[in-house]
Prior knowledge:
By secondary structure, the chain is of the alpha+beta class. 20% of the residues lie in helices and 43% in strands. Strand 4 (65-70) and strand 5 form a beta hairpin. The relative contact order is 0.21.
Amino acid sequence: AWRVVEPIGRGGMGIVYRAVRADQAFHREAALKVIGRTPSPALVERFRQERETLARLDHPAIARLLDGGATPAGHPYYVME
């Protein structure tokens, strides 16, 4: 449901992209984080834990988790405000 527009940051675990809603249901820009290398089982688990933590957070100063899933290549991702 998201189209990657451009990279906006890199870190030890992944790459963050500016993304837009791709299904034309409504317009929304977001940050999409995906594992940036071939994921090991340990890295996938750490990424999953990060996504779960973000899903539980609800604070005005923390971006909310909007979506998550995996790329066609099997790399997990999540989408935040």
